[in-house]
Amino acid sequence: RMFLKSDLYLFELYAQMVSRALHNANIYDRLKRLQQYSDSVVCNSPIGIVVINASGRIMTINPAALEIFDLDKNKVQDMGSADAATNFLDTLTEEERSRWHSLISMVLTTKQEVSEPRFYHHTKYMEKVLSLRISPLADLPDGGDGLIMAIEDITEKVTMEQYVILSEKLVARGEMA
Predict the structure, then answer these.
(1) Which residues have a Cβ under 8 Å from the Cβ of 51 and sit 6 or more positions away?
(2) In a 3-state reduction of DSSP, which class is residue 158?
(3) What span, in angstroms and rounded, lies between the C-alpha atoms of 155 and 163?
(4) pTM of the predicted model as reported, rounded to 2 decimal places
(5) Radius of gyration of the chain (CA)
């Protein structure tokens, strides 16, 4: 009889605390792996993904979106990398800001998804044809609402479609001749 009943009670409490700590560590490890997985999926997606909060600040932007908008990663700061995240509209050219602002405002106010199968976007250097889907998001990490934009550059596809139409017209003219 080395231990008293009060000692046994103390050991049980300690064992429960250790058990909960191990359980929390396992949950934390799973959560960390899930976060790495989702970050990997977003970063490796061929479709541009941009998440912005209600004030227009960039929460997340993947490499495909940076390429679509012709942005330099060093000049764009998202919420994960800095206290003062870049405003999405500030990354656009002057001509494009009003169009994007109206789309973003519409999604934020109506809470309805907006889809544009062919959205013509002018970067500093060229015009791109984008397939655009903007959806509202609730409960962002900063506590507010926002939206997610899925953007695909379909410029080459549209150009190829135009070449096919042109070649079909030439074939039809050749047959008529």
Answers:
(1) 58, 59, 60, 61, 137, 140, 146, 147, 148, 149
(2) helix
(3) 12
(4) 0.76
(5) 26
The whole-angstrom separation of Cα 106 and Cα 119 is 16
3-state secondary structure 71-93: CCCCCCCCCCCCCCCCEHHHHCC
Task: Return the number of other C-beta atoms located less than 10 Å from residue 63's C-beta.
Answer: 15
Compute, in degrees rounded to 10, the torsion defined by CA atoms 133, 134, 135, 136: 180
Three-state DSSP class for 70?
coil
Could you give the CA distance from residue 3 to residue 112 in angstroms, rounded to a whole number? Answer: 66
Q: Tell me the C-alpha distance between 165 and 159, whole Å.
A: 10
Most confident of 26-35, 94-103, 118-127: 26-35
Cβ(149)–Cβ(50) below 8 Å: yes
Q: Which amino acid is at 119?
A: F
Amino acid at 38: S
Contact in structure between 65 and 50 (CB atoms under 8 Å): yes
